[in-house]
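Encode chain A's predicted structure.
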Amino acid sequence: MLVSLALYDRVLVPVARRYTGRRSGITYFQRMGAGFAVAALGVLAGALVEAKRRAAAAEHGLLDAPGAVVPVSVFWLVPQYALHGVGDALATVGHMEFLYDQSPESMRSSAAALFWVAGSLGNYLGTVLVTVVQSASRGEWLQDNINRGRLDYYYWLVTFLLVLNLAYYFVCFHFYTLKSFEVDAGDEAQRRRDVAGSAEGETELSAGCVVASRNGVL
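Encoded structure for chain A:
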């Protein structure tokens, strides 16, 4: 994610600025929309890679050997993690800029806190989703034996939910009316510091969630 932020700031913004004439390159609405779309592509890539891994396990007779090493290169995981990093960078920066720009001065700190509240609720709902899927599939999708389970089906479900979320975002964007608030130099500097801090915190949180989800699913 940190690499994505650096590339975004040093490469994408200057290029986009030439075409849009905006100092920021693209709007925070475009950033958030792109982040949500890339996140969906990341989960889609995960579904395809999991299907390939499971097919390789079946081909080599390893379906009943969950501890065996499936002959699939670990580099197949690079696309999904790269997409997740890019998606998180775009969505996080866009979200924080939106909250600062569209909140009155007295509410900007509270708006930043709401960002983390929303993220916490999302993590909790992710746990609820795993429980619901486990119950609805009667333990078939998320088994202790990952080679017999259908983790790819779970990824497809999450991809579908992310596409619905993107469609809902477009509806909200269409009906949203921009508000204008004056921002002084001090507020702008504070906004940039908070955006950078939020991005770093999101990276640490994402890394922890990946480890936790692996331990929970596998």
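The helical segments are 2-20, 28-59, 78-101, 108-136, 151-175, 185-217.
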